[in-house]
Amino acid sequence: MIAASAFLAIALDRQMNRSSIEMSIYVPKYSEVFYPRIGKRQILDSGPDSHFAVIYRNVSRRTQELFVDGSSWGDYTLEFALRTPGGKPAIVRRRQHGYSKNIPVTVRLEPGDSWVRNVYFDTRSAFGWEGFPDFKRSASVDCTLTAIFTQEPLAKPSAQSKASQPDPWLWTGTIRSAPVQVTFTRY
Fold first, then answer.
1. How far apart are alpha carbons 153 and 151 in whole angstroms?
2. Mean pLDDT of the chain
3. What is the dihedral of CA 105, 172, 56, 63, to 10 degrees?
4. How many Cα atoms sit within 13 Å of 36 on the Cβ side?
5. In the Cβ-directed half-sphere of 62, how many Cα atoms lie within 13 Å?
6. Is 19 exposed, middle or buried (0-12, 13-18, 19+ CB in 10 A)?
7. Which of these, 167, 59, 67, 170, lies nearest to 111 by C-alpha position?
8. Distance, first Cα to last Cα, the chain
9. Per-residue pLDDT averaged across 137-158, rounded?
10. Long-range pairs, 16-21, Cβ under 8 A, ≥24
């Protein structure tokens, strides 16, 4: 049984129109000693293990759950708005694919906890992403990247209960990160 205080906290967050989850993109600035692009946030594409991080933080006073990668619930919660210097916009999404086993799995964030979600952006994989810059080897593309996270309530079968209530710990809504200037470099 969920305490009344949890439901009150949910209602207050919604009433004040604020999200209880914050999100940011983490891309390191590389040193001029090793990389010629001084002081830029650089995403290196050197193969299928290339990735950057999206960090989620629970800024509320209650437990929150977010879907993780590996199922249809988690794979499609995250997308990116990408804009090149020429102003060409693109939406980057996880490539649609089937699942041999598909169950919702969540990560539980206690108040103040953070979760780092690594984005393996391999565009050549069947399980990869669509929309990241396509460019030649030994080339770079500057762009602005904004993460968009949307999580819908988990639907529960109504045949098993007359009054199906949403999971009170499951965060729902849409949030956007601050835009980040990055350089994609392929080696």
1. 7
2. 79
3. -80
4. 4
5. 20
6. middle
7. 59
8. 53
9. 81
10. 19/59, 19/173, 19/175, 20/58, 20/59, 20/60, 20/62, 20/64, 20/171, 21/56, 21/57, 21/58, 21/59, 21/60, 21/64, 21/66, 21/109, 21/149, 21/171, 21/173, 21/175
- Range scoring the smallest mean pLDDT among 61-65, 152-156, 178-182: 152-156
CB of 107 closer than 8 Å to CB of 68: yes
- What is the model's pLDDT at position 162? 47
Q: Say which range, 10-24, 86-100, 124-138, has the weakest mean pLDDT.
A: 10-24
In total, the chain counts a number of residues equal to: 187
- Which pTM value belongs to this model? 0.80
C-alpha span between 174 and 151 (Å, rounded) = 7
Vertex 156, ends 158 and 127: CA angle to 5°? 140
Give the residue, 65 or 168, on which the prediction is more confident: 65
8 A C-beta contact, residue 41 and residue 112: no
- Residue 11, class by beta-carbon neighbours within 10 Å (0-12 exposed, 13-18 middle, 19+ buried)? exposed
Q: Report residue 94 as tokens.
A: 């996880």
- Using 50, 70 and 90 to split pLDDT, how confident is the model at 45? confident
